[in-house]
Design goal:
- The protein has helices at residues 17-29, 43-52, 69-77, 93-101, 114-128, 163-174, 182-191, 198-214; strands spanning 9-13, 33-37, 57-61, 63-64, 67-68, 84-88, 106-109, 137-140, 143-146, 151-154, 157-160, 222-224, 228-230.
- The protein has a five-stranded parallel sheet, with helices on both faces.
- The protein has two domains: 9-128, Response regulator (Rossmann fold), CATH 3.40.50; 137-230, Arc Repressor Mutant, subunit A.
- α4 links the parallel β6 and β7 (106-109).
- The chain has eight helices and 13 strands.
Length: 231
């Protein structure tokens, strides 16, 4: 769930320009390096172009002009163990089975919601051992967030955080000095299988502020009305 030190590279193999650009912008915003294949000569050359970029994960469309995503996967698997998520407009059990039998690590059907795709990406990276890693202790303005113990502290005062509170504070610490939207916080909680709504987020922010007050960190979280929160 946590990590920031290494910028992971995700290869987008998608012939639809609008989808490709949307994915690239989204993944870049989420902290990844997005690289794209835009020309598809044949299966071997496409696989070669992918491997030359040394990606940490490949998003591979099954239906490509002049190429077959399944054969590209065959070529990749003969030379690399890079994680592959198949993205396809065909949504049957047989299609999914075929993709997984050919060496895919995951399968997602179009149309998809970007936060759902992001959850798939993170899960595959986690299973493959390629998930980004960083220190479990974060510091900002005299406040320490300890991810391992799930505690917030300042000086000799400490408060135990719930899982929701830990995820919210982690996101704020990752974007120190920047506004984090309520939508992004809710998406992050959903990515971690914590299903909350807008009102529940407000309750959690209130509880976090109360715990920050207890350790002497009043006004640590600022509200930017209509935009979100920042520290």
């Amino acid at each position: 769930m946590f990590g920031k030190n290494y910028v992971q590279r995700i290869m987008i193999v998608e012939d639809d320009e609008l989808i490709r650009k949307e994915l690239s912008r989204f993944l870049t915003y989420e902290g990844y390096e997005a690289v794209c294949i835009e020309k598809f000569e044949n299966d071997f050359q496409t696989a070669e172009s992918i491997l030359q970029e040394t990606p940490d994960l490949v998003l591979l469309d099954v239906s490509l002009p002049g190429c077959d995503g399944l054969f590209i996967c065959d070529e990749l698997r003969s030379r690399s163990d890079v994680p592959i998520i198949f993205v396809t407009g065909n949504n049957t059990s047989l299609d999914e089975l075929n993709c997984m039998m050919r060496g895919g690590d995951d399968f997602i059907a179009k149309p998809y919601q970007l936060p759902i795709l992001l959850a798939h990406i993170r899960a595959v990276l986690r299973r493959s051992g390629k998930e980004k890693q960083s220190s479990t202790v974060q510091h900002y303005k005299g406040v320490t967030l300890d991810l391992a113990s799930g505690m917030i502290e300042k000086g000799d005062k400490k408060q135990i955080l719930t899982r929701n509170e830990l995820v919210i504070l982690y996101e704020l610490f990752q974007d120190q000095g920047k506004i984090v939207s309520r939508t992004k916080l809710i998406d992050r909680l959903w990515d971690n299988e914590i299903f909350i709504d807008d009102n529940t987020l407000s309750v959690n922010i209130t509880r976090i502020r109360a715990k920050l007050d207890e350790i002497g960190a009043e006004d640590f979280i600022e509200t930017r009305r209509g935009l979100g929160y920042m520290i």
